[in-house]
Amino acid sequence: MQIRKVRDPDFDQIWPIFREIAAAGDTYAYPTDISKEQASRVWLEAPRETYVFEDDGQILGTYYLKTNQPGPGDHVCNCGYMVSSAARGRGLATAMCEHSQKIAKGLGYKAMQFNFVASSNESAVSLWKKLGFETVGRLPKAFCHPAKGYVDALVMYKWLE
């Protein structure tokens, strides 16, 4: 198992993971019917860097890292993580988050911020807290969960130094 930078042909393996997570509509604020082309722009083109977690040539998870805000805020990065449903519960999100923090520091970032974590995504919220992130903001009923209705979105933050 390894985490490595994404390569051009990787999106064909990332796309099923992305499509499944976006279609569920319960963790990310992407359109549930996002196209492959739109998803590629969001996950590969907009970020500063994108990585994959692979095991024996099969991509099981992926994350992106980008500057959260330009100018005076460019010392804070933002990341997004996706893990295949078939690979959940195996520590991939933990490994990718820890890896992304090392990469972020190496790129000169001083902090990491998650802008819009659905409060109903209890496993992610719990993991981010375990890894040292604090909830620094709560957006009441900002995320429309397909089964739970309007739930809060959290802003989570960690100073990396």
Detailed description of the structure:
The protein is globular. The protein is an alpha+beta fold. Helix 1 (about 10-25) crosses helix 2 (about 35-45). It has helices spanning about 10-25, 35-45, 90-105, 120-130, and strands at about 1-5, 50-55, 60-65, 75-85, 110-120, 135-145, 150-160. A 7-stranded mixed β-sheet has the order 1-2-3-4-5-7-6.
Index terms:
seven-stranded mixed sheet; 4 helices; 30% helix; Aminopeptidase; alpha+beta; 161 residues
Short description:
With 161 residues, the protein is of the alpha+beta class. It is 30% helix and 37% strand. It has a seven-stranded mixed sheet with strand order 1-2-3-4-5-7-6.
Topology (elements, then pairings):
Layout lengths: L1 E4 L5 H14 L11 H10 L3 E7 L2 E10 L8 E8 L8 H15 L4 E8 L3 H9 L3 E12 L3 E11 L2
Parallel strand pairs: 4-5
Antiparallel strand pairs: 1-2, 2-3, 3-4, 5-7, 6-7
Helix pairs in contact: 1-2
* Cα radius of gyration in angstroms: 15 Å
> What's the total helix number?
4
What name goes with the CATH superfamily? Gcn5-related N-acetyltransferase (GNAT)
> What is the spatial order of strands in the main beta sheet?
1-2-3-4-5-7-6
